[in-house]
Design a protein that fits this description.
Strand 3 and strand 4 form a beta hairpin. This protein is an alpha+beta fold. Helices cover 43% and strands 12% of the residues. A four-stranded antiparallel beta sheet has the order 1-2-4-3, covered by helices on one side. The protein contains four helices and four strands. 19% of the residues are buried. The termini are far apart. Helix 2 packs parallel to helix 4.
Length: 115
């Protein structure tokens, strides 16, 4: 399909002025970005979506992903998205999940001599 039918567009009219509270994602983004950069990781601060890109401290980001798994951190290698040398983290999770991940990231930073 290349366009929405008229009936669907008509049904959408009442919700056009609705607002979505995205402060939840902003809080998670800030907590994760600030926490990781304080630990010495280099990150790209997201301006949209809910993914944070972290530069791998080693050339092979797959090695970095595997090291993170040992600490129960789930990171996706950036080369899967055409961004080799980086990993992608999703922060569309609970605040507690982000907060509870930071001690593991601190251990990971220590593995690579960042902190």
């Amino acid at each position: 399909y290349t366009c929405t039918d008229t009936l669907s567009l008509h049904d959408a009219l009442p919700i056009l002025d609705e607002k979505t509270d995205v402060s939840f994602y902003d809080e998670n983004r800030t907590m994760l970005y600030d926490g990781l950069t304080e630990l010495g990781f280099t990150c790209i601060k997201p301006e949209g979506a809910f993914y944070l890109w972290v530069k791998s401290p080693v050339d092979n980001e797959e090695e970095f992903v595997e090291e993170g798994k040992k600490l129960h951190l789930l990171m996706v290698k950036g080369s899967a998205f055409g961004c080799g040398g980086f990993v992608r983290l999703a922060y569309c999770v609970s605040h507690e999940t982000v907060k509870n991940s930071l001690p593991a990231f601190e251990k990971l930073a220590q593995v690579y001599g960042l902190k």
